[in-house]
Design a protein that fits this description.
15 helices, abc type-2 transporter like fold, elongated, 395 residues, mainly alpha, 4-stranded mixed sheet
């Protein structure tokens, strides 16, 4: 059989049957995109439940409370009258944060003494803790500048001069690429890629593994033709699937796509090819089709944690960096995010080269194992090894 005949046959296998496997390459990434897109639809942490302990009950303390009430990050859910009750409220889960206003707030403002406002945050979930502390610092800075300005005005300073003295250094902040600091632009593309590599595993592993139990091709057909014919259709459909998911991301969840089509196509072509080669290696080393799906899961699941999506790779220790190197997600996810949000990725070509080397090595190993298993079979291969140890040369 020619290579084109084998390729045509493998292409048909993807679309045959009562439940063809080719749509999995499109449906699973879209399902991941939709499922996680709904989770991150809020885009940032807002309306954190906040309780108030106001021991002063004065116009000044009500001004402080109003500042927190006006912030979109907090939602005042109640009031307690003793400082000890704040901890009880956080422990019971009725609030995530608590604001304590001391009884001598107005007195300290008039005398110019330091003011002790207390923010108590339950940081069992770091997202709430980080968001609450950041928002509280901004609110307290605004209050401090306003109070200092009023004190200076009371000392016969003009409002503009008082503001300049109270806030002499004005720092402007401009956040680029992800100005809302939202989770959707930060995470969704990488999660879509994770769904895509799982889809590749579900499709290509059984296709390769069943070749040892349902011999479709005679032994005269070169092994490289069979492996290439199984990988190429899955590879092409996977790249197309990513761009379908990317259109869905951009249309439904407003994820920007600033990078060039060529760069995105390059990184995804290399990423999907590498994943296909790695999954092929798992498949040829598996005893049956079921194990060909179970074994790669142990490899895929940690890949998301080591990808750099949720924790920056440059903060990983040396052991974690070595482990992360074996996962395609580590090389592809961060590059895709940079291309989508920034429009460029400095590590594009270096990461592509590393993935090509990793994928090429896995493909060579898979090819070698495939040749041996086609020739001897799983059981006969074991017998052959033992007989060679005894000096026998025949099966």
């Amino acid at each position: 059989m020619t290579f084109l005949q084998i390729l045509r046959r493998e292409w048909g296998i993807l679309w045959k049957g009562r439940f063809p496997v080719a749509p999995i390459l499109f449906l699973l990434p879209l399902a991941f995109t939709l499922a996680f897109g709904i989770i991150y639809y809020q885009n940032s942490v807002e309306r954190i439940p906040l309780i108030i302990c106001d021991e002063e009950q004065s116009p000044v303390s009500r001004t402080v409370i109003q500042a927190y009430s006006d912030s979109e990050k907090f939602s005042i859910t109640g009031e307690v009258y003793h400082a000890e009750d704040m901890t009880d409220a956080l422990q019971s889960g009725s609030a995530i944060a608590a604001l304590y206003i001391p009884a001598d707030l107005s007195k300290k403002i008039k005398t110019g003494d330091p003011i002790d406002l207390l923010i108590l945050v339950d940081s069992a979930n770091n997202m709430f803790g980080n968001a609450a502390m950041t928002a509280a610092n901004e609110i307290n800075k605004t209050l401090a500048v306003g109070i200092a300005s009023q004190l200076l005005e009371a000392g016969n300073q003009l409002p503009q001069a008082a503001m300049s003295m109270a806030y002499p250094v004005r720092m402007g902040i401009r956040i680029i690429n992800n100005p809302t600091t939202g989770y959707s632009p930060f995470m969704l593309a990488g999660l879509t890629m994770n769904g895509l590599q799982i889809a590749i595993m579900l499709v290509i592993c059984p296709l390769v593994a069943r070749e040892f139990h349902h011999r479709v091709y005679r032994k005269q057909v070169p092994s490289w033709k069979i492996i290439a014919a199984k990988i190429l259709p899955v590879w092409g459909l996977s790249v197309l699937s990513f761009f379908v998911s990317l259109i869905f991301l951009h249309t439904c969840f407003a994820i920007p796509a600033r990078g060039s089509f060529f760069d995105l196509g390059l990184i995804m072509a290399v990423f999907t090819l590498t994943v296909s080669c790695i999954m092929t290696l798992f498949a040829v080393c598996s005893p049956d089709e079921v194990m060909s799906l179970q074994e790669p899961l142990l490899y895929i699941m940690p890949g998301l944690l080591y990808s750099g999506l949720s924790w920056p790779d440059f903060y990983m220790n040396q052991l974690a960096e070595v482990i992360a190197f074996i996962f395609p997600m580590r090389h592809g996810a961060d590059v895709v995010r940079d291309l989508l949000l920034s429009g460029y990725a400095p590590a594009l070509y270096s990461q592509c080269l590393q993935m090509l080397l990793m994928g090429g090595l896995c493909l060579l190993l898979a090819w070698g194992v495939f040749i041996v298993r086609r020739r001897y079979g799983t059981v006969n291969l074991i017998r052959h090894v033992f007989r060679r140890e005894k000096g026998e040369t025949t099966l």
